[in-house]
Design a protein that fits this description.
With 169 residues, the protein is an alpha/beta fold. The protein has a single domain, classed as 3-Layer(aba) Sandwich (Rossmann fold), CATH 3.40.50.360. It has five helices and seven strands. Strand 5, helix 4 and strand 6 form a beta-alpha-beta unit. Helix 2 runs parallel beside helix 5. It is globular. The termini are far apart. The mean pLDDT is 94. The structure holds flavin mononucleotide (FMN).
Length: 169
């Protein structure tokens, strides 16, 4: 067990020395669809050589945000807007120092309707206000019904977006 910690510690130190980029994908999900998209995005980033963590909004370690190069934030659209737990997370980000200059990307999941509203654009604006540089305009994944499932190919699309973002780090 102790050896496990030592090897992990050495790996983390090596990543720091070698300058491996770090990303954090933060999401909220009521039915699991946004979570699947967050994990697909993370897989693409990881395949692109980035060290990635995926965290639900209520599990984010705010003191570790300083070491992150790219912050991705995703929310389901609820009542034409960002879901409340994500709004609260973004509010709390205002208390975190040193976010300025980091890279940011926002995404959402929503229904296929002209009246669906959006969350990604609003998250993106908040990230910009906090001083992050938006590296790619927000992207939506479509759910076929209120509880899902996701449209075919949505996870693959986000895996590719992850790979694309990895090249920007
Ligand atoms: C309370 C509530 C309000 C919702 N409002 C909207 C909406 O305004 N527009 C929309 O496109 N989808 C709406 N939806 C559908 C969600 O976007 C969908 O449940 C979500 O994308 C699924 O992601 P999740 O599984 O990560 O929760 C709503 C869902 C809930 C539960």
């Amino acid at each position: 067990m102790r050896w496990g910690y030592i090897v992990y510690g050495l790996f983390v130190s090596l990543c720091e020395v070698c300058g491996v980029a770090k990303a954090l994908v933060v999401y909220y999900s009521m039915f699991g669809n946004t979570e699947k998209i967050a994990k697909a995005l993370a897989k693409g980033l990881e395949d692109g050589g980035v060290e990635v963590d995926v965290a639900k909004v209520d599990a984010v370690k705010f003191d570790e945000l300083g070491g992150v190069d790219l912050l991705c934030v995703g929310s389901p659209v609820q009542a034409w807007n960002v879901a409340k737990p994500v709004k609260e997370f973004l509010e709390r980000l205002k208390t975190v120092e040193g976010l300025s200059g980091k890279k940011g990307f926002a995404f959402d999941t929503k229904m296929k309707s002209r009246l669906a509203g959006s969350a990604g654009g609003k998250i993106e604006r908040k990230l910009k206000d906090l001083g992050l540089t938006i590296v790619k305009p927000s992207v939506s994944a479509i759910v076929k019904g209120r509880e899902g499932p996701l449209e075919e190919g949505a996870e693959e699309t986000f895996k590719q977006i992850g790979a694309e973002l990895a090249k920007m780090l």
